[in-house]
Design goal:
Belongs to the alkB family. This protein folds into 3 domains: 3-175, no CATH class; 207-487, no CATH class; 529-752, Jelly Rolls (Sandwich). Helices cover 28% and strands 16% of the residues. The chain has 25 helices and 27 strands. The strands form 7 sheets. An 8-stranded antiparallel sheet has the order 15-16-25-22-27-20-18-19. Strands 7-6-8-11-12 form a 5-stranded mixed sheet. The N and C termini lie far apart (92 Å). Bound molecules: 2-oxoglutaric acid and fe (ii) ion (FE2). Residues 645, 647, 723 line the site of fe (ii) ion.
């Protein structure tokens, strides 16, 4: 390292201080790119001559003559032309400009290929032309700045200078619009950073909670107006936790940014941007890998949308929209370190003034008065955010207590369906992938995660170690362009107009999506609609091994929880599953009286999570609301087997879903020829289930059910084939299945008629 470079590094803290602004008064102007270098600093700090030599040392060149500077925030050495982009990315990346070494035809041909850099030896016009080629159309601060060129020329070591022509990579071009918004935001940030200017460390991490929230509000605010278009008129929510207030909420990807999908509101000109105060950023990292997206409507109070992005990243929706994760409040709360857990307070919304405009929209802002109140509160929040943070954890005054209590966990499951919320097609994205390498994603396959909820519906805590994720939950790397994901997700208003077509489209999309997701991991994860068994779908690794263990433990739990049935030999020897134990939850179908008895043991939270996951992640199941589930405990040593049967065609709905746990088995499907067409088969079903179905060899389809897989039986597979598992087809010592159904609430009297 040259002595100048060394000086440059040493000089960083000073340079950093120089870039700090005072806290009071109007938001100061962000330093121009050039001001990071010699000329700019001279201008900015004229009268402070003693700093000038150090500021000179902030710039150096590499062997190709490219100029670098130390980032004033993180200290990394960044190509000068990319410093804004680097800042825009929240210091997460050090972008590299693409050097086009070959000059364009006729351009600069006469120039000597290498010569020492000397101040002033290059004609001004030529330097200007070079500067203009930098960051075309995107980074005016770099492109237009003569002073920057001066700085480069005077401060770099004397390397031969080629004739580089800088161009933005496609990714950089995509990010370029960030720059303008970044400018707007940064001024406010800098104002808020006044208290931290004496410290040499990066500043964002030093912000207190209150400041973080204010920064967030400012950032959000800056996204309105012209930027709102880029938000697609959508929502942005930042979540910070007072409990976790260790100051790492912002910067370098450390923040929890919750982003609601852009399509909550149907109107482009309406936006609500909120800072939800009482949640923790860790929530996200806990929730994301777990792959438990939820279906709560974006604007419904009590709903939190989480994504592991910093405020900077949030500013560019293109970056985060595919990472949108929907999390329920209890997920977020549960992710808070146990010591910090508190009873859930009412949600507090900080909303910036400019965000609420236009007409109230959909479920979130039907009430105009509410909009106004939110806007007023937001305005105060933003203003107060500029004040120095008070000592202690006192909450900001500009808190609007939204008069909605957090729904109890039980109620949460009802939310999407009772609220009549109909998300548009963009609302739910399962993927997080188009920038899969992002350091802040928390969504990588090895990110730490949590598992299962306890009997209170709460997460019992982190799982030791990392749990590999199924790519279907968090597909990485290849999903960005996949609009097919938009067909996944809940459609609570199932039977609305056009629902059938949509369902059909969703069905059509499922194979593609699953196969694509599978391809990401290089494994065939799912076969959808078995080629020889129409209507049979298989989703592999629907639950993680940890979840599988928890489900098995739940089934085996000897302690009778109020909502769990015990393992009993109820099916032993006289019903469908032979030499097995079973348990069941939900309504109790009575196949003899052809009716359904009321719920005895409601579906435990763990199973409700799975049904929710089914709805969100499997398009075919997006309307599936099972009200019963039964588990069967197969043991090889006991000679357990499953008789050929068709699940009751009248009592049970169109979809039967089997989850396999613990071990694999081969299920044999056999076509019931006379069930293919005509007549209502239901009344004879029970009889015919007892008979050996007529079949030929060609009518038999065997399907391996892997542990953790989810099998969906619909259409022909559901109605025209029996399914069975021979004792010899139990491939492991033990297999437990949980079958989910929707049984019609059919009064016995009617059934008996
Ligand atoms: O064990 C299975 O996967 C299937 C169980 C089943 O068919 C049933 O419970 O009706
Ligand atoms: Fe069955």
């Amino acid at each position: 390292m040259s002595s100048k470079q060394a000086r440059g590094r040493q000089g960083l803290p000073t340079g950093q201080q120089q870039l700090s602004f005072g806290g009071e008064g109007p938001a100061p102007k962000r330093p121009k790119l050039s001001e990071l270098g010699n000329g700019g600093l001279q201008r900015q700090h004229h009268g402070h001559e003693d700093r000038q030599p150090q500021s000179n040392a902030l710039l150096h060149r590499d062997a190709t003559g490219s100029s670098f500077t130390a980032c004033p925030v993180c200290g990394k050495h960044v190509p000068l032309l990319c410093i804004n982009l680097h800042l825009d990315l929240g210091c997460a990346q050090v972008p590299t400009p693409t050097a086009v070494t070959a000059a364009a035809p006729g351009e600069r041909r006469s120039r000597a290929p290498a010569r020492p850099v000397q101040q002033g030896t290059e004609p001004q016009s030529q330097r200007r032309a070079e500067g203009k080629q930098a960051l075309p159309g995107a980074n005016g601060a770099a492109a237009d700045d003569d002073a920057e060129d001066d700085a480069v020329a005077t401060t770099g070591p004397e390397h031969p200078r080629s004739s580089p022509r800088w161009e933005l990579s496609p990714e950089q071009q995509q990010l370029a619009p960030l720059h303008s918004r970044r400018l707007a935001v940064e001024a406010r940030e800098q104002g808020l950073l006044a208290g931290a200017e004496d410290t040499p460390e990066p500043k964002f991490p030093l912000l207190g909670l209150r400041q973080q929230m204010a920064v967030a509000a400012a950032a959000i605010s800056a996204g309105s107006g012209a930027g709102a278009q880029r938000y697609g008129g959508g929502h942005a929510i930042l979540a910070y936790s007072p409990a976790s207030g260790d100051g790492r909420g912002l910067g370098a990807g450390g923040g929890t940014t919750a982003a609601a999908p852009s399509s909550c509101c149907n109107r482009d000109d309406t936006g609500v941007r909120c800072v939800l105060e009482p949640r923790t950023r860790f929530s996200l990292q806990g929730a994301l890998p777990r792959g438990l997206p939820t279906a709560a409507p974006p604007c419904l109070p009590g709903t939190v949308f989480a994504s592991s992005y910093s405020a900077q990243t949030l500013l560019e929706p293109q970056l985060h929209r595919h990472r949108t994760h929907l999390a329920k409040p209890h997920e977020l709360q549960d992710a808070t370190p146990a010591a910090a857990r508190q009873p859930a307070p009412p949600l507090r919304l900080f909303v910036d003034a400019t965000a609420v405009r236009g007409s109230p929209c959909c479920t979130c802002l039907k009430d105009t008065a509410m909009s106004t109140a939110l806007a007023a509160a937001a305005s105060t929040a933003v203003d107060r955010g500029r004040d120095p943070a008070p000592a202690g954890p006192s909450p900001p005054a500009a808190v609007l207590e939204v008069p909605v209590e957090m729904p109890p966990v039980e109620a949460l499951w009802q939310v999407p369906h009772s609220a009549g919320f109909k998300p548009s097609s963009d609302s739910y994205h399962l993927s997080n992938s188009d920038h899969g390498g992002d350091s802040s994603s928390g969504g990588g396959a090895s990110a730490s995660c949590r598992h299962g909820l306890n009997e209170h519906g709460l997460d019992p805590g982190p799982v030791a170690g990392n749990i590999p994720l199924h790519p279907m939950f968090l597909p990485r790397g290849a999903v960005a362009s996949r609009r097919v994901c938009t067909t996944w997700g809940p459609k609570p208003a199932c039977r609305q107009e056009g629902a059938e077509e949509e369902e059909e489209a969703a069905r059509a999309a499922v194979p593609e999506v699953i196969a694509e997701a599978a391809a990401v991991a290089g494994e065939m994860r799912a076969e959808v609609s078995h080629p020889a068994l129409e209507g049979q779908y298989l989703v592999l690794e629907f639950v993680t091994p940890a979840e599988e263990a928890e489900l098995l433990a739940m089934c085996d739990d000897p302690v009778l929880k109020p909502s769990w049935s015990p393992w009993i030999g109820q099916m032993y020897g006289n019903a469908t599953a032979q030499k097995t134990r079973g348990k069941r939850w939900g309504v109790l179908p009575d196949y003899h009286r052809r009716g359904v008895a009321p719920v005895e043991h409601p579906l435990p939270p763990l199973l409700r999570i799975l049904t929710e996951r089914m709805r969100v992640q499997v398009g075919l199941l997006r309307c599936f609301q099972p009200n019963e589930a039964n588990a069967i405990d197969y043991w090889r040593s006991r000679g357990s087997w499953l008789r050929p049967h068709v699940d009751d065609r009248i009592l049970s709905g169109d979809l039967i879903v089997n989850l396999s746990l613990g071990g694999a088995a081969v299920m044999t499907f056999a076509r019931e020829r006379d069930k293919d067409e005509g007549g209502h088969p239901g009344l004879q079903q029970h009889q015919q289930q007892q008979q050996h179905p007529r079949q030929s060899a060609g009518d038999e389809v065997r399907v391996r059910l892997a542990p953790r897989s989810l099998q969906i039986l619909s259409r022909a597979a559901r109605y025209s084939y029996t399914h069975a598992i021979a004792a010899s087809d139990l491939l492991d010592a033990r297999r437990v299945s949980i079958t989910f159904r929707r049984s019609e609430l059919r009064p016995f009297e009617r059934a008996e008629r």
